[in-house]
User: Fold these one by one.
Assistant:
Number 1:
Amino acid sequence: MFRVQRTLFALSTIVLGSACFISSSSAATTQSTGSSISVFGQATTSADESIAQLWQQQTALATSLESVGLVGHDDDEVHHQHSNIDGIGGDYDEDALSSSKSDRIRDTINQVAEQVERRESGLQSLNQSLTRRAQPKVQLGDILAVEPVANARVSSPYGYRTLGGREFHPGVDLAVPYGSPIYATGTGVVVYSGWKNGYGNFIEIDHGNGYVTRYGHSSRLMVSVGEQIKKNQEIALVGCTGRCTGPHVHYEVLLNGQRQNPATYLALAPRREE
């Protein structure tokens, strides 16, 4: 922004200088106008360099987000912001400008200044859009920072499975010894703690920002509804209550009410060992 302000100041100086040159003789006017054009070219070149640096920063950020799947080539919002950025550049015809009056020079300067401001505004909007896309990644790492149990073996993954017919399994089953501690995978508030059909002794925690985690089949519940929970806090003990064939914790992740594959989140958590 400071570079653009300096550029606009330089352009304004040219306009004032050009007005003074018009009152001089024809030869002096031509020489002065040529000097003004030279300074004008330097000012616009400086503006182009500033914009190029801003553009490189936005391109690097977009590439980073695309590499982790947060922004794609067909992303509507980012494409819209990109398409609204005016392109400027090209050579300046010094002969044409030299024959112009001061008002034509002033109009040209104003047009370039407006283009610079529009492009900077467009880049700022694009930056805000890309930054918003980066937020879920930060929230995800903070909320699901640990595994719910230690030294677990996946006994049943997320997705469709066959158990007397085709059935969708909305979480992941982590098999560990009976009575092993179960930990909250992030800070939040307990919204359910009690018996739930199919899940047995069941806990649900709201972590905010649309994230919810669920823990089922516990032998003992150690938290109550409304209780504030810290990440890595022990909330229950592993059991085999409800629909269960062996001791394990049934772990679910929801985002804005939609079930997610817990394996995606657990891959970000360090291995818990005890």
Number 2:
Amino acid sequence: MAANATSFVNRPMAEAVNEVPNIVRGKTGESYSDFAADKRRIFTYTHLAITDVLKGSIKDTKILLRSPGGGKDGQEMHVPGAAQFGQDEDVVLLLGEYNAEDKSYDIPGLTTGKYNVVTGEAGEPILVNSLGGAAMYDPRKDPATQAYNARVPLETFRRIAKGEDIPEAAHNQFEQSKAAPPPGAYEAGHNHPEITPQGTVPKPLTPDQVAPHVEAEHAVETKSSLWVPLSFALLTAVGALVLWLVLRPSKDSDSA
């Protein structure tokens, strides 16, 4: 039940913020894994003590986070890109709606919806992406520009979460970095559809799967381009034959 890669879409910060109903800051607690009600999926649950609500109307001071994947009774489910939590992390999370079935909250953007809070040079709180210095990896780019990271002051993020129209709201979540990506960095297809928040992520097509499709299109174009001159030559020959048959009797009559 594993997949090899997850594609993240690099979107404006305001767009990512507007798509979720709840944004909170809190301190993580213990985590555990359990089966979903259908017994086909495994989720990892993490306790969170809320210290601040940046968006939404969550009144509880303690909530349960739910991330796809985990291990239970000897079974493992791995979802690349799912948010990972250690204990006592200071985090800001972009959360979905409340799940009444297990009293939890999902993170629709997976790891892109998790920010760790660190202290800046002037002592101000800064939000950084949960993968450190290289949150996103684009194999189509030159190696010198393959790393992506997110870093935004908490107060700026708070204003964006409130819906204020400030220049930073139009900035992308992730910016390019000159540093090379670390081993195992997640792939990012910036023109691809957004990731599925739960379940196994489909594997990308291999070159062997893509090549036949390309070759088939080329073959169709080749046949089509050859048919045009062949059709013209055939029509010309038929026309000449018909003209010869029509004119031949009149010549015979003239000679008579």
Number 3:
Amino acid sequence: MTRRHGRIIGFATAALATPVWAQLGRSVVDTPHNLAASGPGVIRATTEEQVCIFCHTPHNAAPIQPLWNRDLPVSGYTVYSSSALDARPGQPTGASKMCLSCHDGTIALGSVVSRDQIIQMAGGVMTLPPGHANLGTDLSDDHPISFRYDATLVGRDPKLTDPAALPLALERDHNAELQCTTCHEAHDNRFGHFLVADNTNSALCRACHQISTTTIDAHMGCASCHQPHSAPSGPFLLRQHHVTATCTGCHDGSHPGAADILADLDRVSSHDTDRPVDPPDPIPGHSTCTDCHDAHTMEPGHADPPGLHPSLGRVGGVTA
């Protein structure tokens, strides 16, 4: 059991300590995860006033720590996969499956083990409504979970931080697996999105992902090009449905300082770039921005032949 899960048990049994939690600034009471009738979120119960009951119960719990009060989903999931992923995620396990008991939208929010009847939610809501919080059972467009993050994985992908050097806030489970709870703390929303740490300047992302640096401001933040959940591209978790569309989201002539690449792509002689991300086989005649440019290492400036133009970055397969 992790330190964070140890705190969960304390929350579940200390119903009279609500004012203290609020003073600490780590209270689930003041977050959208408070589904009680008095909760601050849009989704809440009609009359149920217990806060912890939607996830925990001190008695007659499911045989799952920490005093879990929900059935776990049994449906199969489509998990994330891409040619760039060295890990091999399987079906969700551990704490991630607990999160998915609400966030995959297959089990009623008010369905708890300790009650014979489903707790009724305001407005007749049963499961999480469609939206960013409802991930569904297709997790192929979400950051991978339930895989071992260990020295072996880092040996295959040197752009990952050695697990021994990870910040204490980023906890893996007892199997050294990365779970939803590695990045999210269900009881504390001080950083937004229930993140375990401040993600200003992509600090949380960079705690694991040791990408190279660039001085181009628009390329510094991971969220400029990527989104960790419900990403339109699926593989690579891009903000648009393919690489070129992601790049031309800025490089379309409407952003000062960003080259207008979209105008070049409208020419008769341009490459075909409008194809799916990460195809299983090479596509004849297809090219995309990242074939020549590495957004993580490219720099402004010029270079005389045979030097490499700094806008290429350290893209693979290109040498002076």
